[in-house]
Amino acid sequence: MAFVKDMLRMWAHSWKRFISIAMITLLGVAVLTGIYAGCRDAFRSTDRFFDAQGLHDVQVLSTAGLSNGDIAALRKVNGVAKVQAERSQEVTFDLDGRKSATMQEIGTNGIDQPYLQEGRMPKKAGEIAVTRKFIRDSGKHIGSRLTVTPESASSDTSDTSDTNGADGTNETNGTDEAPSFPTRLTIVGVVLDPRNLSNPDGYSAMTSFRSTATTDYTFFAPSDGVTGTLYTSATLLVKGAAAESTFDESYENTVKQVTDRIDGTVKTDRQNARRQELLDAGNKKIVDARAEADKKFADAQSQIDANRQQFNQQVDQIVSMQAGAAAAGAAANGANAGAAAAAGATTPQLDETTRETMRETIIAASPELTQAKQQLDQAQSQLNEQKASTEQTLKTKENELKTSIPQVRWYVQDRQSLGGFSALKSDLDSIQSLGNAFPIVFLLVAVMMSLTAMARMVEEDRSLIGTYVGLGYGRLAVASRYLLFALLACLIGGGLGLIAGFLGIPAFLLVVLQGMYVMPGLRLEYDWLYGSLGIALFVVGVLAATIYACVQEMRQTPAALMRPKAPRAGSRILLERIRPVWNRIGFLGKVTARNIFRFKSRLIMTVGGVAGCTALIVCGLAINDTVADLGIKQYRDIYQYDLMVVSDDSDASAMRTKVASDGRVTSSLDVRIESGDLTVAGSGDGDSGKAGSSGSESIQLVAVPEKHLSDLGEMVTLQPVSSGILGTSGVGKTGSLKLDDDGVIVAQSAASALGVKAGSKVRLTNGDGVQATAKVGAVNRNLIGSDVYVSETYYAKLFDSKDAKNTKNSKSSEDSEALTWNAMLAKLSGSDASQTDYAELLEEDSSVMKAVSCAHMADSFKFDLMGAVVALIVALAGGLALVVLFTLANTNVSERVREMATLKVLGFFDREVHHYVNREMMILTVMGVILGLPLGRLVGGMLTMALNMPSLYFEVEVKPLSYVIAAVATMAFALLVQLFVNPVLDRIDPISSLKSVE
Prior knowledge:
Number of strands: 23
Strand content: 5-15%
Radius of gyration: 44 Å
Helix content: 40-55%
Number of helices: 27
Low-confidence stretches: 153-174, 203-213, 339-345, 682-693, 801-816
Largest sheet: 8 strands, mixed
Structural class: alpha+beta
């Protein structure tokens, strides 16, 4: 009982050490669990929301729309649980200028159901539900009316409007018609689109750099009032996918099995079948047109023949009358009247030549007959010309039909193709990466501080330990005094850390997240396993340090333990050997130098602890500086052009004419831009980047005309990069990289994510879905986006040659055509504001699909979530620095109580004692800061590997101000600790402190 009372008394006396260990554990557990819990809560809530709203696992799009046959084929794919055919139409309306929207039919099969936020769901024709973004921008409300105008070429089916039939109508065959929605609309509800959770009311509403929306808004309408049997897309749910978390690799593998089946069988067959349907529809229209034309021509010919017969009868009648009159006159001059009478009663018989001569004479003598004959001849001539022209036109259409209808392309996409989904996932993944990296530093610092504190605590009780062991207490029983002390401190600190980690930090992160995304049903959840393991990790570390401290002392005999520990033998420090310097140092300075460098463990612990905390602060500020400069570096340094304009292939010429006529361009480069994929399959042979590496990245494939390869360097800064150690990269000389016909240039952001380097072999997929294996000629410095540059010749070699992969889908060499330059990179005159306004003006032109101003992108790029997390990490690192300095300062004082008492006896005033002790701590703190600043930069470089986000490469940069802030903050914490230590120095009693232990 006395042993227990003494143990409790010892614990109460060491309350400062208890608080230090508890606080370090609290901060470590909070960092370890907090960021993880915040991301996990966001992941789980969005996954539940996606399952409740039936967010599609797979979406199938087609350049020619989807028919009922396509939908039926998709239903038969193994692993498909549900298929929903969807109809949509792009419309425009006036809202402070021309705005566009997608009229989306609300599916009837439970897939992609909008989430009702206000009002009710639309049920009747003309009723719509809109997003909160539209309500905010338009100022309209539930009950407001709106009139829209369908675009002439809307949605995906517009790609076939010029080739679907001989007359260019939108009907692709005899029964399929493009979707059509009502145009007079009434708003009845406000909904959240599950495909895009971006918060329109949040602080990041206008600064998203990953928006992939092709229209400004989405309107949801019921099936009532929607016409058309052609579908713009098909959405699928995969069996077993709902049971997996949509953000886990297991979910991706489940969905990939189905997408591979669609790509491997259904896709090719239905593409060919759909094109054949279009060809049959075109041929049928040509046949119908020929039959209709033949009927019209036959009717016209019959009318002309009838008119000509009537004309001939009239002329023949006149000929007969004239011939009869001539015969009667001849008979009147004859011999007898009887012969004359007989001649007058009989029409004379004329030969054909005489009759024809008389016809021509009669027609020529009569203006009316002459005009009638001319009209008949002219009508016949015109009819013959029309027949010949029509026949020629139909034959031309027959010959052009196969070439005018392109190969139908299917695009099979998963949730990663949704801009809102991929943005949320990449944001959370990046934050979770930080949450996995920083706790390691906290754990190391916690172990170091615990070892320092517990070693001092055991050393203080050295004689008491010897007494207990001499009285027969076991070493384990004696050590339990300190083990239980450390365990209780860890458990209390860890428990408070769990509260902060599963409530405080997640609540903060989710507030920031909800400023960027709308996540219905969000709630905080506790993870018993992860929380318990988090505490156990710090308990094991702290107890290991305590056990080490106990073993170091208790391996001595009780008699040795009960005697005072012999002081360290005197020794010279290195500075003493430098006489010119040592002789100029004052007495107190020499004492300070000896105290600092003679006690190596104190030096290492203090400098190491301060350096670790400073490094954490520098690392956090480095991430903030890196993110802040991403937009400026990419859109002002790497991209030298001011404007990128993209159009549809059919509008490419009109787009270039439009831009040229505006007179704003000082220089330009025509290119072809396609959305594709870059894939690396791990082989372990070194040919595919890192051994065993694998993965896929969405890219922007940029083909450059062969004659203008050298001009690419004027539009984009070409700098080769090479991977360095610990996440660093070496950047080559500007202009030393050239695009040629031997390989492609891959952006650093994609190369870093996939482990690609110069000389690697990668699989490229172009905009038509054709795949080919390409050689990586070089890796170019690039921070945002994943551009892959390829020459015109190498593009043709990859995707048009017979050696290209996926030959079932690739074009044969006979069908190869010259590339259409559907995009332009241009340098503009004028200010940044005028360039931004010009890009917005271009987007309103019908020939322009997308216009991007680099000035606008540089100014609007923000990464708010990362900034919030960095602020949290810096705050926690500052707290850790404060606790570390407090622990080290108190340990330093407790080790030197006799020394401080001696100084007081010698006549030192309290202020002089303060200066004597604090000067050492400040010097050690400065040394730790000096070591921590470059260490923080090194850790920041290592985090580049951890922050592996799609289409982003973090080129670590630390501004000088950040170094200053980190150093000043650490020194300020050291000064703050002095305010707590000075009263302890004042309370030291020289008499009791100098009493002999014996």
